[in-house]
Design goal:
The chain is α/β, with parallel strands linked by helices. The chain contains 12 helices and 15 strands. It binds phosphoenolpyruvate and manganese (II) ion (MN). This is 3-deoxy-D-arabinoheptulosonate-7-phosphate synthase.
Length: about 350
C-alpha cells in the first residue's frame, strides 16, 4: 500500500518563470502566492527561476498564475513530496563545498574512511590513505548508533576535532553522523557535511532542525523505508530552507540473511528520476561483506549514483566497528581506478 499522507491531498503549486523573467515579475508572483497563504520556496537554475508554493493556501486557480507576466507555466503538484520532486529543480541540485568540490555535477564524489574515529593515529592514516586513493571526503563516526549499548559508542567531540585536524592536513572534507539535535551546534565548527544515519531517517525533529542549518546534509535511507518515505523525510529538511541535501541508498532489510542488508541498486535510478537531489550509494552497509563492496560500488555508479560513501580502515581486523565490511586501503585504491574506467560509460568522471 502506498503511503497516503495528509500532505498528498494538500494543494501545492509550482510556478516556472520564463528564462527572461525580470526580478519584478518574480516578486509580483511571489506576492500573489503569499497572499493566498503559500510559503514560497525559490530556486534559480542556470537561467530559470522556479517558485514552489507549499503550506495550506486558501482555494486557488492555477490558470490565474499562468497569465502573469514572466510566467512560463504553473501547475499543481500532486505527489506528497513537493520540494524534493524533480520539477522544483529540473536540472538537478549541485552542492559546492568550501574547497570547491561540487557534488551532483559530472564528477562522481568519493567519501571514504573508517566506520568510527578510534584514535589520532588511526584517523590520520585513514585520511592519508583515502586521499591517496582519490577521495574528496573523509568519513568517520564520532557519535555512533550501535545496535548494542555495550558496543563502542564513539569518541564524541574528541573524534570531531581529530576529523577536522587530519582532513585539513590532507585536503579532505569531513562528513560525520549527527544523532541528535543537541549535537548539531557542537558539530558545526568541525564538519563540512552532516550525515543522517539510517536509524534517524524518520527522526523528524532532528530533520526539522537540520532544515534550519546552513550546512549540507547527506541523509541515508532507513532500513525499512520506502522510496516515498525517503522523499518525505527529505521534505522535512528542504521545507526548512536547507536545499543542500544528498540522499543515500545503504541497503534495506529483506528476508536475505547472507548479506547484512540488501543493496537496493534500483532505488538509485528511481530516486534520480523522482528527485533533483544528488543520490549516493553506500555499498559497505549495503552488503556488509568487504569483498562485495567493490562490485556494488561499481553498480551504484553504473546506475547513476552521484557519489559513494564507503568504509575503509587501515587495519580492518582491528576495527572497533564494521571491520568485516571495511575495505583494505589497497582495495579502495583499486576500486577507484576501476570507477575511473567505468564512469565515462555513463557520462561521468572520477577524480
Ligand atoms: C555508518 O555510516 O557507519 C552507519 C552507522 O550507517 P547506517 O546509518 O547506514 O547504518
Ligand atoms: Mn558503519
Amino acid at each position: 500500500m502506498p503511503l497516503q499522507t495528509a500532505a498528498a491531498k494538500e494543494s501545492t503549486m509550482i510556478v516556472a518563470m520564463q528564462d527572461q523573467a525580470t526580478e519584478e515579475n518574480i516578486q509580483h508572483v511571489i506576492e500573489r502566492m503569499v497572499d493566498l497563504g503559500f510559503n514560497v520556496h525559490r530556486t534559480t537554475g542556470t537561467q530559470q527561476t522556479i517558485l514552489a508554493g507549499v503550506g495550506k493556501p486558501t482555494e486557488f486557480d492555477v490558470t490565474e498564475f499562468k497569465v502573469l507576466a514572466g510566467v512560463q507555466d504553473a501547475y499543481r503538484i500532486t505527489q506528497p513530496y513537493k520540494l524534493a520532486g524533480r520539477k522544483f529543480r529540473p536540472e538537478g541540485t549541485t552542492i559546492t563545498f568550501p574547497n570547491g568540490v561540487v557534488v551532483g555535477g559530472k564528477e562522481v564524489t568519493i567519501m571514504a574512511g573508517p566506520c568510527s574515529v578510534e584514535s589520532r593515529e588511526q584517523i590520520l592514516l585513514s585520511a592519508q590513505q583515502v586521499k591517496a586513493a582519490g577521495a574528496q571526503f573523509l568519513r568517520g563516526g564520532a557519535y555512533k548508533p550501535r545496535s548494542s549499548p555495550y558496543s563502542f559508542q564513539g569518541m564524541g567531540v574528541e573524534g570531531l576535532k581529530l576529523l577536522r585536524e587530519v582532513a585539513d592536513m590532507t585536503g579532505l572534507l569531513v562528513i560525520t553522523e549527527v544523532m541528535e539535535i543537541s549535537q548539531i551546534e557542537v558539530m558545526l565548527p568541525y564538519i563540512d557535511c552532516f550525515q543522517v544515519g539510517a536509524r534517524n531517517m524518520q527522526n523528524f525533529n532532528l530533520l526539522r532542525e537540520l532544515g534550519h542549518v546552513r550546512k549540507p546534509v547527506l541523509m541515508k535511507r532507513g532500513i525499512a523505508a520506502t522510496i516515498e518515505e525517503v522523499l518525505l523525510s527529505a521534505e522535512y529538511i528542504l521545507s526548512g530552507g536547507n536545499y543542500d541535501l544528498m540522499l543515500c541508498e545503504r541497503g534495506i532489510r529483506t528476508y536475505e540473511t547472507y548479506t547484512r542488508n540488501t543493496m537496493d541498486i534500483s532505488a538509485i535510478p528511481v530516486l534520480k528520476k523522482l528527485t533533483h537531489l544528488p543520490v549516493f550509494g553506500d555499498p559497505s552497509h549495503g552488503v556488509g561483506i568487504r569483498d562485495f563492496v567493490p562490485p556494488m560500488a561499481l553498480a551504484s555508479v553504473a546506475a547513476g549514483a552521484d557519489g559513494l560513501l564507503m568504509e575503509m580502515h587501515p587495519n580492518p581486523d582491528k576495527a572497533m566497528s564494521d571491520g568485516a565490511q571495511s575495505l583494505f586501503p589497497e582495495q579502495l585504491e583499486k576500486l577507484v581506478a576501476q570507477l575511473r574506467a567505468l564512469a565515462p560509460v555513463v557520462g561521468r568522471t572520477v577524480a
